[in-house]
Automatic annotation (TrEMBL):
Residues 177-317 form the MoaB/Mog domain. Its EC number is 2.10.1.1. It catalyses: adenylyl-molybdopterin + molybdate = Mo-molybdopterin + AMP + H(+). CDD domains: MoeA (cd00887). Catalyzes the insertion of molybdate into adenylated molybdopterin with the concomitant release of AMP. This is Molybdopterin molybdenumtransferase. Belongs to the MoeA family. One of its GO terms (molecular function) is molybdopterin molybdotransferase activity. Pathway: Cofactor biosynthesis; molybdopterin biosynthesis. Pfam families: MoCF_biosynth, MoeA_C, MoeA_N. GO terms for biological process: Mo-molybdopterin cofactor biosynthetic process. It comes from the Bacteria.
Amino acid sequence: MKALMPVEEALQRLLSAAELLGSESVALEAADGRVLAAPVIARRTTPGADVSAMDGYAVRAGDATLDAVLRVTGESAAGRPFAGTVTPGSAVRIFTGAVMPEGADAVVIQEDTKREGDAVTVTEAATIGRHIRRAGGDFATGDTLLPAGHRLRARDLALAASADVAELAVIRRPRVGLLSTGDELVRPGAGAAAHNVILSNIYSVGALARRAGAEVADLGILPDTMAATQEGVHAALASGIDVLVTTGGASVGDHDLVAPALTAQGVELAVHKIALRPGKPLMFGRSSAGTLVVGLPGNPVSAHVCALLFLVPLLRALQGEAVAPKPALKAARLGVDLKANDHRMDFMRAAIVGEEDGVPVVRPVPVQDSSMLRVLARADVLLVRPPNAPAALAGEPCQILPLED
Ligand SMILES: Nc1nc2c(c(=O)[nH]1)N[C@H]1C(S)=C(S)[C@@H](COP(=O)(O)OP(=O)(O)OC[C@H]3O[C@@H](n4cnc5c(N)ncnc54)[C@H](O)[C@@H]3O)O[C@H]1N2
Ligand code: MOO
């Protein structure tokens, strides 16, 4: 029997086929979760001037000694600076965010003063520079605030706004088409009979793809005939998508037509069957026009695990994010003895049963059937076993892959 391709090699092949997509400009409101095509450069210095960090009085520190009485000559509020100068013996009422007036070099907070008419008594001596935010203290015009390839988070949007950047250059969303195959498949709610299987894969795979920034189109369900599969693949490849994701029909049975249909439609398969459980029948290829094709196994757990391990990194790479060429595993400890593994890297559905030395203790759930979605939904993590891992004892270190939420 031909040796199956290792998971890392398959992932490497996917990532090296990922060419950066083009970019577009979007308003801040539409930029959440998008990946920057160019760095965000500050278009202003922030704060734009020295400003007060507190409500109180702008003073000359040399004058504002304990029990000094200063004359209040005006007010500086946020957006309405004081036009004059703080002269010796005087103070200016100031509020948080307001520009420091000329002549002042400290702020005394109002809790440390007593005010009577135009006179303010200092009850806690001022220190030079106290409670002043310096111009450019956060950033200055021309500073690079966020690099290209960065996926925008909520706080990044506020940062870009504060730097006077109203539109961002982001990589366009990858367009993903989902094509399901199988005579048995019926949509949820459409009256499935006992011999039917309800189409479920595209919901988890589609959600993962959307969360990775893609636009997702459901391209329908194909019956198990060579003609229909070829026709469906042909139409999908001509529809302007960047990534075609097929589900099902990937294995070796008489009705597993996806690989031959893809090949007949000019898709060159760089990956076909890998040393993975669940997910052995994974396919990856590229059409003559450059559309990438990910063939996921039909079993719903296998499809989900393969989407996590391959489709999500591929979509991230297409958007220019730095993607590690191996799954991002975390340290854990075994909560039970395990038998030796075979040649397939195993991603076992597992429960977190405790914590030891700051890492979770995990135990595989008893049923590892790759068709069972309730088992997947109940799992906390995937417990990862390398190919040919020897038997291991409870308490030994192991690795886990977090599930997406
Ligand atoms: N003789 C062998 N049989 C199988 C092998 C093998 O190596 N030799 N591999 C097994 C493995 S591993 C997997 S995984 C499955 C996957 O095979 P396919 O990708 O060809 O999937 P199908 O046969 O089309 O379907 C399998 C199963 O999943 C259901 N399915 C399919 N699509 C969907 C969907 N969109 N939503 C929900 N469920 C779906 C389908 O009804 C079947 O029950 O093959 C093993 N067999
Ligand atoms: O790889 Mo299949 O995904 O074991 O069930």
